[in-house]
Amino acid sequence: MPEDTRGSTSLPESEETPGRGGSGAGADGASRRAAAVNENRVAPETAGGAVRAAKTDSRPRALWRRVGEAVLMVAVAFGLAMLVQAFVVKPYVVPTGSMIPTIQLNDRVLSDRITFHFREPRVGDIVVFRNPMSGGVPLVKRVVAVGGQALEIRNGYLYLDGVRQEEPYLAPERRGTYNWPEYRIPEGALWMMGDNRVESGDSRIFGPVPVSDVLGRAFLVYWPPAHMGRLR
User: Fold this and answer.
1) Is 90 known to be catalytic?
2) Is 0.90 surpassed by the pTM of this model?
3) pLDDT by residue (tens digit) across 62-91?
4) Per annotation, catalytic residue among 10, 23, 58, 98
5) Which of 111, 141, 200, 203 is an active site residue?
6) Is 141 a catalytic residue?
7) What is the three-state SS of the chain?
8) What is the pLDDT of residue 186?
């Protein structure tokens, strides 16, 4: 008589019942867990290496960025210095003793390039102007007469329009005893003289200087420190 199989359930061949084939399944699971552990161990090392490589790659870039910033700062500073010298203040060396005692030999002075945009040079101003004789190194002298004034020198003393000038900046031994006949300064020109009248190449040699040749007003001795001070 055929066996009645209704109500009974057969297990699929691929499935294992407890107690049969259990040791094989356990070994496979253990292998998978070991592999996962190994992967977890390797992953941090790989990530750390990538971070170190990224840091190493970024160092040259950071260095070049700093170099670029430094070059830019130097270029900006140089440009500003050139603008300041061209339009505001310019330094000069006085290589002669023609302005002693006011300016000593090889003193360094600062010249203001703004003042004469707002007013004309006046008697008593110490100015820097283009060299009328050689066109070389600019000269530093004092304005002693301006356009329209009549200048005369008697026994070393300066007269303007017949009035003797005090000139307190002159040392008596450097005044000299020479004479100069009366001369009227042309409009738009200046008569320049050094404070060291006995040793100065000035308008007595090259004549009046056009106002347009004036480069600035010398206002300060800044070097050497022992001579530092405002010019008057």
Assistant:
1) no
2) no
3) 888 888 788 877 777 656 555 555 557 999
4) 98
5) 141
6) yes
7) CCCCCCCCCCCCCCCCCCCCCHHHHHHHHHHHHHHHHHHHHHHHHHHHHHHHHHHHHHHHHHHHHHHHHHHHHHHHHHHHHHHHHHHCEEEEECCCCCCCCCCCCCCEEEEECCHHHCCCCCCCCEEEECCCCCCCCCEEEEEEEECCCEEEEECCEEEECCEECCCCCCCHHHCCCCCEEEEECCCCEEEEECCCHHHCCCHHHHCCEEHHHEEEEEEEEEECHHHCEECC
8) 98
